[in-house]
Prior knowledge:
The chain has 386 residues and is mainly α. It has two domains: 2-185, Up-down Bundle (Growth Hormone, Chain: A); 208-385, Growth Hormone, Chain: A, CATH 1.20.1250. 80% of the residues lie in helices and 0% in strands.
Amino acid sequence: MNKKLNIDNLELVSFFNGLVFFAPVALLIRTRAGISLDQFFVLQAILSLVIFFGEIPTGKITDVVGYKNTIVLSQITLLLARGMMLTAFLTRNYWLFIAEAIVEGIASCFSSGTISAYLYRRYDEGEYVVKSARTSNFGTAGFIVSTIMYAGIYHFFGIVGLLTLTAVMNVFAVALSFGIEKEKAKSKEAVDKKDTGKHKLFILRLNAENIIIMVTLACVSISFILINFFYVDKLESLGISEEWMTAIILGYSVIEMAAEKILDHIGEKNYFRTFVAGFIISGLCMLIFGRISIRLIIIPIMLLLPLVVSVPAYIFDEMENKVIDKNHLEDKRAEVLSAYNMGVNLVEVIFLFASAYVSGIGVSACFTVVGVLMILLAGVHGVLKE
């Protein structure tokens, strides 16, 4: 119980990482520095490409140096990226923005799957899911604090103040990361299997099990992309001012933090049924959100949907790690998780290009497709479990 009551360094790192004061004006940082919209999309493409191609190499590095050391490395790299962004904005240097995108992509690769692997190694079965949700909640708390403080900082100190304060918060995150407890040592069985598949470029077999895992993870990721980018469009279609978006964001962020308590109350024995039910409910909410424009229905869905998606997502993290154990790849956990994320990125790219192609139909089509897919995946997982 003490582990749940005390705040550890990893949770504090998550909190300080959530303090991204410049998030509401991320695009403005580039355009105010003379970056055109075309150049902005190039920067995002570079970031995506670095993450895509860097997943496997950084996963291999993580399995060699350890999870705690990689978390420290990711924090140092992220701090470097924040400093480069501030410098790029002050100097209005496009090439420095490109370098920042590359470094940020590397930081993202080092953090990708590492915290999940660290927690899975460090905590016993049954504790992992709740601890994962708790750690994420600290990041959400940081996000809420930074969102509330954003307007005042921007008013008095401008974009430079937002970037500087975010970088200072990352300095605290780096310092705290050194105090994170080291993960448990690998089991003798895992060490004996260390050479298994070490010459493989891509560690995963592209079988049905792994493809289903990637598509499930991609569904969760795409759900949050739709929430983050298209909630404001839905507000406008309901005739509600976009100024209310901040209240919506704060509202669903606070509600989403209930995931830890819900998972703790449900208990490990009911995790799988909760996962299936959560995906079905998420899918139904997506379908309703895309097809209906009634304020009294849509606003509650807006506030609850992130929580409804998050609960099964945390459970699936544990299911994913159990598959790694079942396939005797526990000594290469970070590399496998990176490989899964690589597949998720690919599915996301396909979905986003397809969405752009059918954009004339409207955003509702995207919500409908994801909603149907989530319901189908819930059925597939249910059948496979039998």
